[in-house]
Specification:
Length: 92
C-alpha cells in the first residue's frame, strides 16, 4: 500500500545504491514452489575462508569477539531502551 510513498522511494534508492558494486553469478534450482541455492560466486566477494577460519594463524583471536559483542550490545540495549519509551508514550 505504500509503494508510491516517499519512504518506499527512499528504501529503493538505498537498496539500489548498496548493490551498485555487486556482481557475480548465482545458480538456482526451482522445483515445486521451492528455490534451492546451488552455488554463488563473485570476483568482488568479501568472503575469505582463510580469514574466517579459527584454524589459520593470524591477527584475530577468538577472545577478540568479546569486545565486538559488548560494543554492539551497548548500542542495541540503548536502542531498545529508547524504543520502549517511544512505545509507552504512543500507548498513552
Amino acid at each position: 500500500g505504500f509503494w508510491h510513498s516517499p519512504e518506499c522511494e527512499f528504501l529503493r534508492q538505498c537498496i539500489g545504491r548498496s548493490q551498485g558494486a555487486v556482481v557475480g553469478t548465482v545458480r538456482l534450482s526451482v522445483f515445486k514452489g521451492h528455490v534451492y541455492i546451488l552455488g554463488r560466486e563473485s570476483p568482488r566477494s568479501l568472503y575469505n575462508e582463510e580469514l574466517v577460519s579459527m584454524n589459520v594463524q593470524g591477527d584475530y583471536e577468538p577472545a577478540d569477539a568479546t569486545g565486538f559483542i559488548n560494543i554492539n550490545s551497548l548500542r542495541l540495549k540503548e536502542y531498545h531502551r529508547l524504543q520502549s519509551k517511544v512505545t509507552v508514550k504512543q500507548d498513552e
